[in-house]
Amino acid sequence: MTNRRNFLKTTGLATAALGLGLPQFSFGLTKAEPFKISLAEWSVNRLLFSKQLDHLDFALEAKKHGINAVEYVNQFFMDKAQDMAYLKEMNTRCQNEGITQVLIMVDREGMLGARSDEDRMKAVENHKKWIEAAKFLGCHTVRVNGYSDIAWSQNPADATEASKLVSDGIHKLCEFAEPHGIRIVIENHGGFSSNGKWLAETIRNANHPLAGTLPDFGNFRIGAIEGKPVSYDSYRGVDELMPQAAGVSLKPKVWDDAGNESDLDYERMMKIVLSHGYHGHVGIEHGERNREWESIVEIRQILESLQKSM
Q1: How far lies 23's CA from each of 10, 48, 85, 299, in Å?
Q2: What's the mean per-residue pLDDT of the chain?
Q3: 198-204 — which CB contacts under 8 Å span 24+ positions?
Q4: Residue 232 in contact with residue 189, Cβ under 8 Å?
Q5: Residues in Cβ contact with 214 at an 8 Å cutoff, skipping those fewer than 6 apart
Q6: What is the mean pLDDT of residues 169-183?
Q7: What are 303-308's contacts with CB under 8 Å, separation 24+?
């Protein structure tokens, strides 16, 4: 009875305080953010490739521009996956500034859907060090590519065979990742993987709870035929991939089924994302040439507005 009286007293005061607009008496009754905001390192790839920005400084620069969570790209510390002193320095810088290290995007480590068993297993082995690095850094996910040496075509048999091979490589990598507790996700990243239905089915066929997706709003350009883009509707593709998503990447351009690119409808897309019960990080992956940070801040502000309205 006492607890109930205290509860009613507290909620009564809180309600009155909120009605009077007194934030100091809100008693924590604040609306939870529907999603979080992070920054993908690829957004500033030109600055990194040109040595205007060092990888070790990326997280601190993100915070200076109002973003407290980062998504790494392995290309910018390619030879450091097993350099413990370097990884410790990454940890120290982020921990000192309260920055969350979300995931590592891994490229250039072989095709997880290679036709050759030997090549497929070599790719799996090449990726393992990044899983260990992700664990050390406190990341929850490693993003890989769903590529095969079966070239993209409109032949359903090719799509089926490529999916089978990628599923096998992902399953093997997930088995290694399991004791580390790291998610292994494929991003729609061109070719077969930019077909939302194909990628969702490939992940289901991988048949492992750690296998998932990283839907990228803008990466639904599949390929080209006689110079004309072949694409997949971004809104439908994200909707198909969200049930297995461990993150999302935001690009401000989207595609339709007719090969047309257009501006992202932020509210429409975020409603799709949230409809699947997702409340994780939305990773900004965009930086306009010569105004990278300015364009990043512009998108961050749009997302912050949506955080308040959704």
Answers
A1: 14, 43, 45, 28
A2: 92
A3: 198/159, 198/163, 199/146, 199/240, 199/241, 200/240, 200/241, 200/243, 200/244, 201/163, 202/146, 202/163, 202/166, 202/167, 202/170, 203/167, 203/170, 203/244, 204/244
A4: no
A5: 103, 141, 143, 185, 186, 187, 245, 246, 247, 248, 249
A6: 98
A7: 303/35, 303/37, 303/250, 303/266, 304/37, 306/34, 306/266, 306/267, 306/270, 307/33, 307/34, 307/35, 307/37
For the record, the structure tokens of 138 come out as 């406190």
Residue 118: name the closest of 175, 178, 165, 171 by CA.
165
Q: What pLDDT sits at residue 31?
A: 67
The first and second tokens of residue 99, run together, are 């920055």
Q: What percent of the chain has a predicted confidence (pLDDT) above 70? A: 90
The C-alpha atoms of residue 82 and residue 78 are separated, in whole angstroms, by 10
Place of tokens 């036709």: 115
**Cβ distance 281 to 250 under 8 Å?**
no
CATH number corresponding to 33-309: 3.20.20.150
Tokens of 216: 């990228």
Cα(254)–Cα(265) distance, integer angstroms = 9
